[in-house]
Amino acid sequence: MSAVELTPAEAAGCALRAGLPLAGERHADVAATANHIHAVISTLRDLDFGETLPAAHAAHAAHAAHAAHAAHAAHPVRAAHVVEREVADASL
Questions:
Q1: Which helix H or strand E contains 9, and what residues bound it?
Q2: Are 47 and 40 in contact (CB under 8 A)?
Q3: 52, 79, 84, 91: which has the fewest Cβ within 10 Å?
């Protein structure tokens, strides 16, 4: 066990301070879960996302694609204009 991992007793103490007393048989499971979450977060912090767009930008692009598809289904003539505008907006 590394120095940063919680022991079952430490997990129980943290839970008690947070107002969540744990039954004795749950201490080890809670400590293992907390240690796993810590390991996952540590891994995510070490990742180099480089040129990856922020989530808000990706969500906007997905919304634009959905809107363009819906516009095309409802009004095929206006669809090209909607796609052009959404692409221009997304690139800002």
A1: helix 8-17
A2: no
A3: 91
pLDDT tens digits, residue range 10-61?
Answer: 999 999 999 999 999 999 999 999 999 999 999 999 988 888 777 777 677 7
Q: Which amino acid does the sequence have at 5? A: E
pLDDT of 54 reads 77
* Cα distance between residue 52 and residue 57, in whole Å: 10
Residue 87 near residue 64 (C-beta atoms within 8 A): yes
Residues 6+ apart with CB under 8 A from 34: 6, 11, 14
Through-space distance between the first and last CA atoms of the chain, rounded to whole angstroms? 48
